[in-house]
Amino acid sequence: DGCLIRGVCHSSKENRSIERNHHLEDYKEKIRKLLNSEKGIKKRKQRSVEVEPVFAHLKHCNNFKRFTLKGLKKVELEFGLHALAHNLRKKVA
């Protein structure tokens, strides 16, 4: 009746089916091309200089590990407060 270790992969009694979204695959390919273009590479390098240090500072100095609120609007508000505090500290220093 098929594979001896079938239960390791899935618990369904029926055969496993995998659906692929071809629009998603096309979109991923488009994004991959943009990221690997000359402009995309330049933007990625810029991000590592401008944005990543802010996240590192929030995590290390502010002991920010995870959001305490739930829901997109509340998380946006919470992150906005962290960003505001970060910018105020930069302005004062």
TrEMBL record:
It comes from the Bacteria. This is Transposase DDE domain-containing protein. Residues 2-90 form the Transposase DDE domain. Pfam families: DDE_Tnp_1_6. The lineage of its organism: Bacteria, Pseudomonadati, Bacteroidota, Flavobacteriia, Flavobacteriales. InterPro entries: Tnp_DDE_dom. It comes from Epilithonimonas hominis.
